[in-house]
Amino acid sequence: MRRLRPNRAGASAALLGAALLLGGCTPQVSGAPPAADHTPQAPRPTLMPQAPPAQPPAPLAGLENRVQQAAAQAADVGAEIETAVLDRQTGQLASHGANTPFPIASVVKLFIADDLLLRESEGQIDLSAADRQSIDAMLRSSDDSAAQMFWDRSGQNAVIDRVVARYGLTGTTAPYNGHWDVTQSTAGDLV
Asked: How would you class 70 by CB atoms within 10 Å of its CB: exposed for 0-12, middle for 13-18, buried for 19 or more?
């Protein structure tokens, strides 16, 4: 996943804060240095040797079997599941049906927000305070009207095209009818 670049105002505020913090840590000295003190000094503690780097974490034992077992149990009661589980520490991926496309409905709201915030950080668009409140409502309350407003304003299917290109998604497709809520993706792409 590509990291968003901080906006200039945020970066400027962070630099100003660091400068003020570091400026406050500078010793303020005036006058002559103190007379030499011949008091014996305690020996300086020696630095402890550093521990060797930790071994990389081991993969989760049996994860693939557990994912397959869950899919089988779901099938026993008439349900179909597509699953992809990624251990971000080891990179281990276990999946069942991870490349089967399905409509992702409100998950598209994450794509819309990602697209808006990236385009703003690149100076392509400006988001007002009201826009930011609408993004918040879209994500926190699953506000469909906010999603529709941003979808229309951002070029509809072009939102999905940009997200697919940015993240190299291979199983995500723009909606056939232009309605954001029927965008198709896969568990593999989402993970």
From this structure: middle
- The pTM of the full predicted model, rounded to 2 decimals, is 0.65
**Dihedral in degrees, nearest 10, Cα atoms 59, 168, 116, 139:** -40
104-161 residue pLDDT tens: 999 999 999 999 999 999 999 999 999 999 999 999 999 999 999 999 999 999 999 9
* Phi-psi sector, 127: left (phi>0), alpha (psi -120 to 50), beta: beta
The whole-angstrom separation of Cα 60 and Cα 74 is: 22
Q: Where are the domains of the chain?
A: 63-96, 102-185
Pairing of strands 83-86, 93-96: antiparallel
User: How does DSSP classify residue 173?
Assistant: B
Identity (one letter) of the amino acid at 63? L
Alpha helices per DSSP H over the chain: 8-24, 63-76, 108-121, 129-140, 144-153, 157-167, 187-190
pLDDT score for 172: 97
- Whole-angstrom Cα Rg for the chain: 27
Which of the two residues, 164 and 13, has the higher pLDDT score?
A: 164
Strand pairing partners for 149? none
Q: Which two tokens stand for residue 181?
A: 């809520």
